[in-house]
Write a structure and sequence with these properties.
Elements: H1 2-38, H2 45-52, H3 56-62, H4 74-87, H5 94-106, H6 112-124, H7 126-147, H8 160-182, H9 189-201
């Protein structure tokens, strides 16, 4: 009897989770479509809620801010980035560790088309670009304690070198994603990232 009740609870929870995921995906897809069609700044929360068939209150239960509705979930990007870098074996050098983190974070996009639209909006919308740069600085600081030990323990290793390396890697990601958008998503964004890194490192 107890097992049956537990199974029923699990089934109900799974159904609730699935319903929530479907609703969340529908809201995100609606928001991304409207942002693409008429611009991020020109699209209102009320319009997204109406088009998605939910109330604004329901929409805000799923997403805290309008920026979250872009669907890129930059906080999760930062978490996956730092987690992956931190999981790299000690013998992996700083550049390879950062590359692994960036590649892992890019897999958060549901599809190539969705990634392309998100990057296009990010690079062409001033408010989104400013928000991304602010978060990027925070991600950089989160990465410093993970990268610094990989750069040796000499007296000159005070953190500024780690910051320079991290900032370079993230700047290469920006350059690669901008080129990828300009090419309408042709090729692999990580190949472009590698080309940018080779150019920087000489």
């Amino acid at each position: 009897m107890q097992k049956d009740a537990e199974a029923a609870r699990r089934s109900t929870t799974t159904l609730w989770d699935r319903t929530r995921q479907l609703a969340s995906r529908e809201i995100l897809e609606t928001a991304l479509r409207l942002f693409t069609e008429q611009g991020y700044d020109e699209t209102t929360i009320a319009q997204i809620a109406r088009e998605a068939g939910v109330s604004q209150r329901t929409l805000f239960r799923y997403f805290g801010t309008k920026e979250d509705l872009l669907g890129g979930d930059q906080e999760r990007f930062g978490q996956v980035l730092t987690d992956t870098v931190g999981e790299q074996p000690a013998e992996v050098d700083v550049w390879e560790a950062l590359r692994a983190g960036i590649a892992a974070a890019l897999t958060l996009h549901d599809s190539r088309d969705q990634a392309l639209e998100r990057f296009r909006l990010l690079h062409n919308t001033g408010s989104l670009r400013a928000g991304w740069l602010e978060k990027r600085l925070r991600f950089q600081e989160d990465l410093v304690p993970l990268i610094k030990p990989r750069m040796g323990s000499g007296a000159g290793n005070t953190g500024h070198k780690a910051r320079a390396v991290i900032a370079t890697a993230l700047a290469c990601l920006d350059a690669a994603s901008m080129a990828w958008v300009a090419d309408e998503g042709e090729g692999d964004i990580m190949d472009l990232y590698d080309e940018c890194l080779v150019a920087v490192r000489g």
